[in-house]
Amino acid sequence: MSLKYTCPGCGTPLGYDGLCWKCKCEQERKTALAWTPEQIAEKQRNLIQNIHRLADMEDPECTDFWQLLGYRDAITPEIQRAALAAGVFWPCEIYYHAPADVGEGLIHALLSTEDSSEASNLMCCLAMQGDDKAMETLLELERNPRPWRKGLYVDPSIYAQCGGWTFNKKGQRTQLNFDTCFSFVKGAPGEVSPVRIGRAREDTCPHCGGRMADMLVLDGRDKRLKFLGLDGILTATCCPNCVGFLKGPAFNRFTLDGGVEVFPSELFDGAGKMDCYVRPEDYRSLTENPFVLGGAPVPPFYGAACDDVNTVGGFANWVQDWEYTACPHCGKPMKYLAQIQWDTLMDGTEGTLYIEFCPDCQIVSMQHQQT
Prior knowledge:
Elements: E1 5-6, E2 13-14, H1 21-33, H2 37-49, H3 51-55, H4 61-70, H5 77-86, H6 100-112, H7 116-129, H8 132-143, H9 156-161, E3 165-167, E4 173-175, E5 178-186, E6 195-204, E7 211-219, E8 233-238, E9 250-254, E10 260-262, H10 280-287, E11 291-293, E12 311-314, E13 335-341, E14 352-358, E15 363-369
Antiparallel strand pairs: 1-2, 3-4, 5-11, 5-12, 6-7, 7-8, 9-10, 9-15, 12-13, 13-14, 14-15
Helix pairs in contact: 2-4, 2-5, 6-7
């Protein structure tokens, strides 16, 4: 069936008249980034007045919230206090770095509830608030579980990961993400970038015979990336065809001079071979993409506010639940590094590749999620 229309923004063939979803997302983002201080203040006031609509995912409050958070980093303590007063505990990101009085309110609500579902939401909110008292409360609940714990699948230390941190049984805190975030933007032909998505390789995958790819090559010596603490090159290598079919993440070890050692992996069905669905033209699209590292940092939730942005640092837009991989060498939870949206690179694909790393062991994990 031939497609009657084309997107006026990028020329993509469409079955309807209007912008494709990528161009629509970009247009909405540009609009939010162009808001005046007066427009931001008006949206903040409306969100406070109608905070109950946020929990019901009603617009414009829901869209305004994610754009205020992701693009403008403009969720104020007043909004957080209004949410607490109204008993609004979704989305949990509304409580990111909320002031101490809000944290105390969340703790009181958590210690007062007898409902597993409400406790789950409140632990996510407290993880986002994330101060020392939040950790002390979650640690105490891990050591001395309330009856509602029987209705949950994981411990409070896993809920803490929702906020980008966790703790061990001794009460030692570990940060799992970076507050600094950079996005990828479309660069000019031949533009040099310290981060590259999708570099071609000659070796092939033992499962499908398709070509492997360096999904992320990152030079931490660039001044924009100093926050990563990498004095050299990190390379994340996997099979773009099979990474979504593995029993667990794909792993490789990297050396700061650019070297890579790919670890063996196993498919979900245990089969040794599978078909390769990445066509030569898809591979070219993947490895010849125009993305380069943006020139200035963006808010930490920039990549969590939409489905068409690739980011380094900050928070991920988890398709399912957050998932921090244990390092296969030391067993510690790995740090979130980057997200790559497959459909920004290859047409007809879906889902997201999440890249994490262990700075101590110099090991990278790559895992795929999709709806």
